[in-house]
Amino acid sequence: MSRLASQAQVLLAIAGALIVWQLVVTVMHVPVFILPTPTLIASHVAGNIAQMLGHLGLTMAETVAGFAIGSLIGALLAILVMQVKPAEALIMPVAVAVSMVPTVAFVPLALIWFGVGMSSKVAIAALAVSFPVLINTLTGLRRPEQAHVNLYRSFGASSLAILWRLRLPAALPSLANGLRVGFARSTVVVIVTEMLGAYAGIGQVIYQATAQMDSTTVWAAVALSSMASLLLYALLVGVLRKTIWWN
Amino acid sequence: MTRKGLLKSIAAPLLLLLAWATIVPALAVPERYLPALGPILQNARAVSGELLASVAHTGWEAVLGFLLAIVFGVVWGILFAKVGWLERSLFPIFVALQTIPVVAFGAIVVIWFGNTLMAKVFISFFLAFFPIAVSTLHGMRMGDRQRIDLFRSFGASQAKVFRLVELPTALPAIMVGLKTGLSLALVGAIVGEWFGDTVGLGVMLLQALYVEDVLRVWVLIIATGLLGSLLYGLVSLCERKFVWWRIE
Amino acid sequence: MSMMPAAPSGQPLIELVNLSKRFGEGANQVVAVKGVNMSLQKGEFVTLIGPSGSGKSTLFNMIAGLLPPDADGGIVFAGREQRHGELLGKVSFMPQRDLLLPWRTVLDNAIVALEVEGMRKKDARDKARALFAEFGLAGFEGKYPHELSGGMRQRVALMRTFLFERDLILLDEPFGALDALTRSLMQRWLLDIWAHHKRTVLFITHDIDEAIFMGDKVAVMSTRPGTIKYSENIDLPRPREAAVATTPAFSAIKKRLLAVVEEESLKSFEGSGK
Question: What's the whole-model pTM score?
Fold first, then answer.
């Protein structure tokens, strides 16, 4: 099936689901606090658009910042582990031990250390992203076979040159995979942190709306944050596909 | 697991604990950031009863959600693999649902079900369901066409081909999904508790946060990590015993 | 094109009548098999020499019932023309890859076809165990495929094929992946098994020596579109001994076959087949 046709089919499926949703809720008189209609949610978003976008913008900014920092840390650590032998024994046990703990358990720590402002969210996002990026990048760096490495050594290449010419390019597809996985985690984790403590942001909006049983606002926030993270994810995938096209 | 493998996997955390016990006091790291192992253990002992109850409570929520997710996730994955139009029409909705942040989903679930065990289990289930379904679908697609044809040449029915070839082929991929799903189920249980509960690791984390008790927070971080490792270890054990093969 | 068989004459076990298979439409159409006519008598061992790209796998898939032949031809089995799917379960098919299930022991791999038939696992296992010595796998019942060498895995697949008691056995280059020494041993061993179990065998190979050594009758397939270009009876005495490969009679047959095969291989090499 052509690309356009399958995209159209996806849109059709989602549109269909929305229509079914609207009909079921309306016909069965489902109370608003259980499930509002899509139209009600949309009008709520439209009515509060400036405010909601403000919160959304903050959340997304924290996500992107944390994602960038975490990816950098993860990639650098992977390179360090690859190039410097003793670094592996130092870094990997810590990384693995940290990864065994669900990231959300670190949220109170981040809030205590960094306070309720943006930096705690960025820190948590960075933490969530760094491990997948580290593991995936390391796998990619290690992929070239010894025979291939030996070939480069026979050309007189230094360890650094081998890293630059052979390992890094070979690692890019895995790195891309780590970035995709890491991004998904970072969006979730930022909202969770905002829920526990923040001045603003989608997470706070959701938390407060829940306390007030204002399900319309909750759904509105959900709709907006879902769309925003889908958009950012699509952007990321698009950029990756353009730059690492041989994957 | 080989002797050497077992030794290796214990050595790393042991080394880490050793380093923690010695380096941290040596460097006099302020307690606010990284307390020494001693005070952490003391703090843990002080609330050991509550701690164990919380671990059991949160663990139980996660496990229930996880088990439900396995049942529904595997079935849905198989349906998606076998029924083409189902996959084409429902999978996009699947993907869209996956983007709902756990906090948001938790909020909605709590509005629906209140602060009950069922709500937490549902949150865990929701988070774990998707990776399991997706990896089941992926595993079903790894079916070797030639192997399936061979069995068809024996006169095997679709059901027999599924039971004898397709399902065992999919199991390694399903296991990968199970491991992802398990860690997500634990996350779901903890976040669910933040919406209001009396017992649980999430509850204790919240309490420690409000009084800024860094020691307690570290106790809980370690406890959560141990719970996660234990559950993960159980799944890995099952994998080693029952799904030990790899598909090329 | 039926021949004077070494086996009892009478109604052929299987007849391929103008068998064809085309894939695709119009300008992009690929004719894999075209107008294949062949018949096998019960108990015959027929070898088929097929260069790569000759559509031999497609031919086998049709005989095994996995692919429907094109409407202008058909397969007559035990006197009845077969509709699509009817052949499934009637022929014992062994593809090129051993396709053993990695999660089952050697014993349980051998019995898969019997299980599909509906035999009880215990009965199937007993039946299989009896053959282990004959197939040179005694003691390996409880091992897993990844613990076996390539040659041994091939023998497990052969055991599976023979346990599935059907009159016709299709073997698609079973010894292709083996080294020359192992292959020569396996050839003689397979002929022993065939003589003992009395089945009809259609055996594909790209090795001319193997084709002459093993068969009562040898046929050569052309490159795409695949058709039977040449066939002849092999009148060498049975049981075949290793020394027969250097007799003048053998060489004469080989010379004739080489000429035909070279012609086809050249065509395939130059890419003239479509």
Answer: 0.82
